[in-house]
Amino acid sequence: MIPYLSDRRRVELALPAEMLDPVVRVMLERGKNAEDDKCLDLVKAAIQEPFEGVDPAKRAKLQRRVTALRVELLTPYEGRPVVLTFQMLIIWLRDMLEDGTLDLVEGSAFAIATDDLIARVIQHEDLVLKTQKSAIKNARKLRSKLEMRGYYSGRGLPQAGAA
Length: 163
Fold this sequence. Notes:
Layout: H1 7-27, H2 34-48, H3 56-74, H4 82-98, H5 109-122, H6 125-148
Helix pairs in contact: 1-2, 1-3, 1-4, 2-5, 4-6
């Protein structure tokens, strides 16, 4: 049986994948190779996972809320290097995983996509090191903005560190 999830928690669970989606679409090219296509499909599937079993009208409402949050939170990063935005999101995600704010279900679309994306970033350590300090600062800002809106609040302590 699927455990009860509040609307807020469903939004919290969908938001990391929703935030990564436009960044990943810039980094990876659909049709270039099977690995890129699979990763893009997994991120899309991960956005939908928290809404499984929700009636269509409510599902649409929650998805609009998640999309609006993404647009609001990522707009300040338009025109910035995609590696910075990606690294900020990975640090934000890593910090939530480390402090127990978020758990990745082993074998879920998001867990598989995240593992794949992190492995890809590790291959480009030179780019990551150039943006690391800024990404850490921006990950803290992102978390703070979300907590001020009532998301992920009261769960764990903010983390600071590198991906």
